[in-house]
Amino acid sequence: MTSSPADNRRPSAALLLELQYLPPIQYFVWLQQYAIVYIEQQEHYIKGSYRNRCHIAGANGMLRLSIPLQKGKNEQQPIRQTRIAYNQPWQAQHWESIRSAYGSAPFFLYYADALAPLYQQRFNFLFDWNLALLHTVLPLLDIHCTIHFTDAYYPIAPPAWHDLRNTISPKQQRAQLDAHFRPIPYPQVFEAKYPFLPNLSILDLLCCTGPEAPLLLQQSYAAIE
User: Fold this and answer.
1) Is the pLDDT at 13 greater than 70, yes or no?
2) In terms of pLDDT, which residue wins out, 19 or 74?
3) Are 30 and 45 in contact (CB under 8 A)?
4) pLDDT in tens, 93-145
5) CA 204 to CA 61: how far, in whole Å?
6) Alpha-carbon span 60 to 189, nearest angstrom
7) Of 12, 120, 158, 167, which cross-links 176 as Cys (Cβ 3.0–4.6 Å)?
């Protein structure tokens, strides 16, 4: 009998990380491991991170989708006060890019109805937008964790918390080596044109593998004794 991804979770420990925009696969590999998750809400915005960008696989290779922010990208701005800019129709542009990238993927239509309405809503704050997306994606991956929010900023996390803040990053100089994460290749839309692109936005895994996504997340976690 095959165990479910939730069977081996760590009930007595908690995961601590920041909110990201449709985060990469690695982010959800870790979410799947914990029943209790703390989201950092006391931090300041950090530019050049996944907080307001995600990577998808387009017809011309990896494509970055970036959310514009008001008053530039101020690293001193509290994350709960970081506002989204709507000078340009970025939501329509992002959804069109997603539709163009994954419209021919096997499971795009299966998930589009859950995601498309969010791209028609205006969220004032980046944190609220990312949280709404996270709450939408988690059940699609059969991940059922209890989410809490930090009540203070802890430079050093409490002993029972696994601190992954700022370790999953698009910047190589910031990303930390993760010995537990081993990307499992799966069929991608443009695999005939490009080699496998690992650790893209969770959208790629969902649209390409559908109900197999939870198992692939589980297989992408390497237990280390």
Assistant:
1) yes
2) 19
3) no
4) 999 999 999 999 999 999 999 999 999 999 999 999 999 999 999 999 999 99
5) 13
6) 11
7) 167
Q: Which residue has the tokens 């370790």?
A: 167
Amino acid, single-letter form, for residue 120:
Q
- From CA 201, how far away is CA 153, in angstroms rounded? 27
In the chain, DSSP finds a helix count (H) and a strand count (E) of 6, 6
The closest of 74, 75, 50 to 64, measured between CA atoms, is: 50
Cα distance between residue 211 and residue 148, in whole Å:
27
CA dihedral 153, 148, 52, 76 (to 10 degrees): -20
d(CA 33, CA 42): 24
Cβ contact 44:75 at 8 Å: yes
Single-letter amino acid code for the residue at 58: G
Torsion of CA 146, 147, 149, 155, to 10 degrees: 90
Residue 25, SS3?
helix
Work out the angle at residue 144's Cα, subtended by the Cα atoms of residues 80 and 175, and round it to the nearest 5 degrees: 55
